[in-house]
Structure formats: C-alpha cells, structure tokens
Design brief:
Layout lengths: L18 H14 L1 H5 L6 H10 L12 E2 L12 H4 L15 H4 L8 E6 L5 E4 H7 L3 E8 L4 E11 H8 L7 E6 L19 E5 H5 L4 E6 L2 E2 L9 E3 L12 E7 L6 H5 L23 E4 L5 E3 L7 H4 L14
Parallel strand pairs: 1-4, 2-11, 5-12
Antiparallel strand pairs: 2-3, 4-5, 5-8, 6-7, 6-11, 8-9, 8-10, 12-13
Length: about 325
C-alpha cells in the first residue's frame, strides 16, 4: 500500500489561494494603504516598474511562463509583482531598497558563466545556450530575509542539481563557490571600497544537489527583472535571503569552504550556513517573527522557513558549527 507523506510546504490544494485571488489582492492592498504603512515603496513605483518592464529580454521570453510544479505550495499569497519589483536588496546598486531604477543599467545580454575549479574540464557557458540545455519550470517559494521580512515569489528556473551535472565536478569537490559580476561603471554601489567585491556565496555539494535548491532565470511568468538578479540567480528557500546570490558570472567547485561576502563583512552576524531559525536572534534584532512584505501582517517564523522536512537531515551531527544565525 502506498502511503503519501506530504512535505512541510505541501498543503492541501483546497487551502491554496487561487492565482487570480493572489493577483487581485494588489488592489485591496493599495486601497488599505498597507504598503505605505510598511514603508515599502514611494510614489515613483509606476515609473520604476514601467522601466523594468520596458526592458524585457524578448529573446528569452519564449521560455516563460514555465509550467508550474505543483509540489511547491507556499501556503501564503504571492507577493504582488509591483511591490516586489520596487523593494530589493542588491548592494551592487546601493545599500537601500529602492535600487530598481539604477539596476536597469546592468547589461544582461550577452551573459556568460565561467565554470571552473574541481571539474573535469573548465568552460565558459553562454546563458542563451544554458536555457537550451535545461527545462524551465515555475515554483512558488517563500523567501525570508535576515532583516525579518518575507515574501512569496513565483520563480521560474531549474534545479541547481542540473547545473552541477552540466559542470561535471570531480569527486573531490565538496563546495560550490559562486560570484556576482563586477562592473563599477554601471553598478555604482561597487564603488564602496569597504565592501569585498565581488559578492561571493557558497554552499555544500549536498545543499547544491538538494531538490529545493533552484537556479532562477525568471519570475512572474517572464525573464527576471534586473533588480531581481538577472539573468540568473540562486534561491535557497530554507536559508536567509543573502545566501541566494544574484547575477551569477562564475561557479567554482572546490574542496575548501568559501568565505562569503557577508561573512567577510561581519562574520559574527552573518554565518556561512544562515539557515532560518526563529530561536536564534540576530545580534541586533529578533528572528522570532517576520513582516510579510506588502501587508500589515507579522507572522511567526518557522525553522528552516518551513522547509525542514526536506533539508533538516543535511545538518545532523555537525557539532561546533554555527548552523543558524
């Protein structure tokens, strides 16, 4: 007899909010004034979003929207696109949230990704060619920022495991190290010399091969907006958002644990593992609850952001490691 044991994020279909209700919520949210109360966006939102939408990469548009994978039901309404598109952490373009206009200076085509390190043969992968080698799907994922706010996004992309298989790493590889672009002429935030550019992040091979690890190439049924980390970024829904590196240009396989951007900036506050844990506060604020972006809601934070049944086994018997913030 086959017994189905649902994962922590797999809610009953009847409990999932229909997509048309998700999208129609924005009118209700605006009417209630909840965006202004949360201090999310300013009066420039329509112009910012129009600018982002005007630069759609039509050559990639044929891949979207990807077919939605029904396994991934976040249990929360999707954050409206206009809210998400105007509230972004992308330090390459500034240390504030309203960087969407500045991010439009990023040139995303042509775009190449260097694959190197402990692989059978290093190579350069053109992003256009990458899209031809993978199958794009859509997943609804929760996102939890270390700053104690959260959102839910319909990401399009492919499993990180597929990228690992394309890279053909050696058996000695234990970690995947990733880098974001460096271009100080267009990314003025990179003129801040006190930051250790380029932005670097890393995961273990086991984390990279986990089914939840997702290489994101689109959102809301279209290619990624530049402020989201176009043309390709990572999303790890069980970790704090800074682990989900944007605008990736290099993927290296190594036997040494990488030291990430924020770990270098302030290792006491931002660790390598960065798994979401409501019981471990950030040194400067509690992680017990989170503000749901675009609403007045503040909800309890869940261990591993609610994805524990899929990832908790990765962190057993790791004494002495700062697994959570």
């Amino acid at each position: 007899m086959l017994i189905k044991r649902p994962r922590g994020w797999e809610i009953a279909e009847a409990l999932a909010t229909p997509e048309d209700v998700f999208l129609n919520r924005r009118a209700l949210i605006k009417g209630a004034g909840s965006i202004a109360a949360a201090g999310v966006i300013g009066a420039a939102l329509p112009a910012e979003l129009a600018l982002a939408r005007a630069d759609e990469r039509t050559v990639w548009a044929k891949y979207y929207p990807g077919k939605r994978n029904p396994k991934y039901k976040p249990g929360r309404p999707i954050t409206p696109e206009d809210i998400n598109a105007a509230y972004n952490n992308f330090y390459e373009f500034g240390s504030h949230k309203q960087i969407s206009r500045a991010a439009q200076a990023l040139k995303v085509r042509p775009w190449t990704i260097r694959i190197d390190g402990l692989v059978e043969k290093p190579f350069i992968l053109d992003f256009d060619d990458l899209l031809k080698k993978v199958s794009i799907e859509e997943r609804l994922y929760r996102h939890r920022c270390v700053e104690a706010w959260s959102m839910t996004v319909p990401w399009s992309g492919f499993p990180m495991a597929d990228l690992v298989r394309l890279a053909r790493p050696l058996s000695s590889a234990r970690f995947v190290r990733m880098e974001t672009f460096v271009d100080k002429k267009v990314a003025r935030g990179q003129l801040a010399h006190w930051y250790p550019w380029p932005y670097v992040e890393g995961v273990t091979m086991a984390e990279a091969m986990n089914a939840l690890a997702f290489m994101v190439t689109g959102a809301y049924g279209k290619p990624l907006h530049k402020q989201f980390g176009a043309p390709i970024r990572l999303h790890l829904p069980w970790k704090y958002g800074f682990k989900s590196i944007k605008s990736i240009v290099r993927v290296s396989f190594t036997d040494k644990r990488p030291k990430s951007f924020w770990e270098t900036v302030q290792g006491r506050e931002y660790g390598f593992w960065a798994n979401v844990n409501p019981k471990v506060p950030h040194p400067r604020w509690s992680q017990a609850t989170e503000r749901v972006l675009g609403t007045d809601e503040r909800v309890p934070t869940r261990i591993y952001n609610g994805y524990g049944p899929w990832v908790a086994h990765l962190y057993k018997n790791m004494k002495g490691e700062r697994l959570f913030m």
